[in-house]
From TrEMBL:
Native source organism of the sequence: Natronosporangium hydrolyticum
Family, similarity comment: Belongs to the peptidase S1 family.
Protein name according to UniProt: S1 family peptidase
Lineage of producing organism: Bacteria, Bacillati, Actinomycetota, Actinomycetes, Micromonosporales
Peptidase S1A alpha-lytic prodomain domain: residues covered: 142-193
Record InterPro entries: Pept_S1_alpha_lytic, Pept_S1A_streptogrisin, Peptidase_S1_PA, Peptidase_S1_PA_chymotrypsin, Streptogrisin_prodomain, TRYPSIN_HIS
Secretion signal span: 1-25
GO molecular function: serine-type endopeptidase activity
PROSITE patterns assigned: TRYPSIN_HIS
Length: 410
């Protein structure tokens, strides 16, 4: 196996005076910040495990250590969380399939081990109860709340200046409101937009503006790759010879390479609005499989799932390495300095510039997203971190349709 030589360069920059929610790409020629940050340290180079056969053992130990570090857990608590989430994620996935359009969203309370599933009607609620989860029936109120987020999405597209001071917006069913986060120093300017919806909107303030986060023979998820325009991190390997990454990283036609070897061209991208892209692997040097790199150690991806709020997830990328956190929201629209990406997963795993495109996954091996951006201060994560990933349920469906490509699983 070739040794991986990690290089670090920086694409979108966080503003240095205010906290910037940043896209995690790296611009060609600009060095990324490699200081220790909340949630993890920048990975050292040449940390490729020498033997793929030992990956499961090494990877599991690394993952367990990251959960303890980033979620402030004991080893026993981390092991218990992983075991509980195995059941929760499996139950939630089965309910999504069984309920179809009657399924709305789910939340996991790690303290009590309770899975709550929001549904549209009483019959679906009965199915949830039989499965051992708590049911929550939402009615006309859901349509009202999603109407508000749709209106904000449309405003961001038609008049970007009107939402310049708004960081993000999403439905919070537990609060029965749309939560809108605005920059603290622009709260007055955004009041005309947020105030029109009355008590249906809860306004929160932040000092941090979002920004996008971009900066192998095994072409694992979470490794550094570059094009002439800069660098990002690989996400998940797909069948038919594709690699999933972030759409904001690079335009179609640019050639991606890693560690002195060509990977292939960027075949497709969807950005802004969405944030996913596919690299076509045309160099037979690379070995693709269902693995992500944990700095150090490998971890096997076993499937794809929509994330449940409250569950622990981990992320891997070229700048920050492996970090873990908790899903704190789904379906969120985020304004990256005038560029809005919709339907994002918000979580507290620290990701930074260069980590864009890298994998976000559950502790039992389900892919949930690829890194899009984070709130950063001087290139470092806030405390607690606020990060966003684009859901693989959407991107994988697109590439199944376009190329017949599916997630590689083990």
């Amino acid at each position: 196996m070739a040794r991986h030589r990690t290089t670090t360069t920086t694409l979108f920059r966080a503003a240095m005076v205010t906290v910037a929610a940043t896209a995690l790409a790296v611009t060609s020629g600009a060095a990324a910040n490699a200081q220790q940050v909340t949630g993890g340290t920048a990975p050292a180079g040449n940390q490729v495990a020498p033997n793929q056969d030992r990956s499961a053992e090494v990877g599991e130990a690394t993952l367990l250590a990251a959960l303890q570090r980033d979620l402030d857990l004991t080893e026993a608590q981390a092991q218990r969380l992983m075991a509980t989430q195995d059941t929760v994620v499996a139950t939630d996935a089965e309910l999504q399939e069984e309920l179809g359009e009657a399924y709305v969203e789910s939340r996991f309370d790690a303290a009590s081990g309770t899975l709550t599933v929001a549904v549209t009607d009483a019959a679906a609620a009965e199915t949830v109860t039989v499965a051992g989860a708590e049911a929550e029936v939402v009615g006309d109120r859901l349509a009202e709340l999603t109407g508000i987020t749709d209106e904000l999405d449309a405003l961001a597209e038609s008049d970007p200046a009107a939402v310049a001071g708004i960081v993000s917006w999403s439905v919070d069913l537990a609060a029965d409101q749309v939560v809108v986060t605005v920059l603290a120093d622009q709260a007055a300017e955004t009041a005309a937009v947020t105030g029109q919806f009355g008590s249906a909107v809860q306004v929160e303030t932040t000092e941090a503006a979002p920004s996008l986060t971009q900066d192998l023979p095994y072409l694992d998820g979470g490794l550094a790759y570059n094009t002439a325009a800069g660098g990002c991190s690989t996400g998940f390997n797909l069948s038919q010879g594709y690699v999933l990454t972030a759409g904001h990283c690079h335009t179609v036609g640019l050639t991606a390479s890693a560690f002195g070897q060509t990977i292939g061209p960027v075949a497709h991208r969807n950005f802004p609005g969405a944030d996913y892209a596919a690299i076509r692997v045309t160099n037979s040097y690379w070995i693709q499989g269902p693995w992500v790199w944990l700095y150090p150690g490998f971890f096997t991806i076993v499937g794809n799932a929509s994330p449940t709020s409250g569950t622990a997830v981990c992320s891997s990328g070229r700048t920050t390495g492996l970090t873990c956190g908790t899903v704190t929201g789904t379906g969120e629209s985020v304004n990256f300095g005038g560029t809005v990406v919709n339907n994002l997963i918000r979580h507290s795993a620290c990701v930074r510039q260069g980590d864009s495109g890298g994998p976000t996954f559950t502790t039992n091996g389900f892919a949930v997203g690829t890194n899009t951006g984070a709130q950063l201060i001087g290139g470092n994560c806030t405390n607690p971190p606020v990060s966003w990933s684009y859901p693989t349920t959407t991107s994988l469906a697109a590439y199944q349709s376009l190329y017949g490509a599916s997630l590689l699983t083990g």
